[in-house]
Specification:
Oligomer: single chain
Largest sheet: 4 strands, antiparallel
Number of helices: 15
Structural class: alpha+beta
Number of domains: 3
Shape: elongated
Order of helices and strands: HEEEEEEEEEHEEHEEEEHHHHHHHHHHHH
Strand order of the largest sheet: 1-5-6-9
Radius of gyration: 30 Å
Length: 445
């Protein structure tokens, strides 16, 4: 019996990949003899896949999607150190969506980037977590070389027999396996014996190489015929429903975060690579919008400055503190409202960078809002100019030797004096304010 949810999710993925969705589709039996398939055939799709003719954009480059079809998963072969092969059938029979691309990749790095984007799309859609290390996403990578003439032009249009690489369990290994196979096939060409048959090779992580497993079958060898126990699928209504359920996709969200919030493209990408983190940032900017309006910080320059504060404190400082604690944005105690308040305190210079790290760490540990943390730990910034001037005067008097060397031309010693002001105030003075006041006093006396 077909799994309706699997069909719906497959169609949803097809829409996101810009595919045409078949109004009618069917399942077929694909026959082959291999230990992971004891009944000797797999329920798959042959000539009427549910999705076809799509694409994914990698920057400005379009990667074509030939088709996406549903099939049942097979077992997993486990090759033991004793020379025996064992088969794990726990996943056998579960729904699998196979996505086939056009030969549009120009490098292993490009193939890796495509897979990362594909995983992100699946996560945004709620189709799968697509974690390769957990077997939720797998990749069979195909490599085929063509001849070039002396000027570097391609000779003819025919690809030579391809090699399919299996047993790849991470994005990094996809890149490594392709790099190895390109070298291996290149060496065969140089030796005058290019591949003559299509083969399947397995990636061996231990040796960082591929090993031949079998000669690849042709379509005729699989003896496809319509699955007699599953009737024709009518998909038009489901396809319309699933199109209406599509969320904002990663590429569109990245572009919007740059345009609407003023985030730099690289920051928007890093944030949107985690749907939960992107949701958090969305709520943070929603909270900040009222503060921006009341403070008059609504022009493009102010918006970019605020966006840089958010991304800087989030992606480098907050993420680092979370990594130290073994938590992520889904489990942390800081909510969007409190983080937005924290950013406004930084923007208004009521909290400097040094004290900010202390406050942020306490917010992570207790879930308290930043104002209460500052009050409890007495971490508010010193804004009284006369109080700051007293500290600066004290530092100049205490470190007369450094001051004399500074005035003698050792201008780099200004940083030492700034550090002493920060130390005296336990980081409660804005470093820029301390620097400016020191410069005035050092140059005027």
């Amino acid at each position: 019996v077909p799994n309706e949810q699997a069909i719906r999710l497959g169609i949803r993925m097809g829409h996101a990949l810009n595919c045409a969705i078949a109004s009618h589709s069917k399942f077929d039996r694909k026959h082959y003899f291999y230990p992971d398939l004891p009944k000797a055939y797999q329920i798959s799709q042959y000539d009427l896949p549910i999705c076809s003719g799509g694409f994914v954009m990698l920057g400005e480059k379009k990667i074509g999607i030939t088709r996406a079809h549903l099939e049942e998963d097979a077992g997993k072969n486990l090759h033991g150190s004793d020379g025996k092969t064992y088969v794990d059938f726990n996943r056998a029979g579960t729904p699998l969506l196979e996505i086939v691309t056009e030969p549009d990749f120009a490098s292993p790095q490009e193939a890796k980037a495509f897979l990362i984007e594909l995983r992100l799309i699946a996560r945004y859609l709620g189709v799968s977590d697509a974690d390769m290390e957990k077997g939720q996403m797998r990749c069979d990578a195909n490599v085929s070389l063509r001849e070039r003439d002396a000027e570097g032009g391609i000779v003819g249009m025919r690809f030579h027999p391809k090699t399919e690489i299996k047993n790849i369990n991470s994005f990094r290994n996809v890149e490594r396996a392709l790099q190895y196979e390109l070298r291996r096939q290149g060496d065969l060409w140089q030796a005058g014996s290019p591949p003559s048959v299509t083969t399947t090779r397995g990636w061996d992580d231990a040796t960082q190489s591929t090993k031949e497993q079998r000669v690849k079958e042709d379509a005729g060898d699989y003896r496809f015929f319509p699955e007699p126990d599953i009737p024709l699928l009518e998909l038009a209504a489901i396809a319309a429903e699933e199109r209406g359920r599509l969320p904002e996709l990663p590429a569109a969200r990245r572009a919007r975060f740059s345009d609407e919030y003023g985030l730099r493209p690289e920051d928007a990408r890093q944030i949107c690579d985690d749907p939960a983190l992107a949701d958090f940032v969305e709520h943070v900017f929603s909270e900040l919008s009222e503060w921006m309006a009341s403070s008059g910080a609504e022009d493009a320059k102010d918006k970019r400055k605020l966006a840089n504060l958010v991304s800087g404190w989030l992606t480098s400082k907050l993420m680092g503190l979370m990594a130290e604690r073994g938590i992520d944005v889904r489990t942390m105690k800081i909510n969007a409202e409190n983080f937005a308040e924290f950013i406004t305190l930084i923007a208004e210079r009521k909290l400097n960078s040094s004290s900010g790290m202390t406050v942020l760490g306490e917010m992570l540990d207790s879930g308290a809002d930043p104002s209460h943390v500052m009050e409890d730990k007495r971490l508010g910034a010193i804004e009284d100019e006369s109080a700051i001037a007293d500290v600066v005067d004290r530092v100049i008097a205490t470190h007369a030797d450094i001051v004399e060397r500074y005035r003698g031309g050792k201008k780099e010693l200004l940083q030492v004096l700034i550090g002493q002001v920060m130390k005296e105030t336990e980081g409660a003075v804005d470093a820029k304010v301390a620097r400016n006041m020191l410069l005035v006093k050092l140059e005027s006396e």
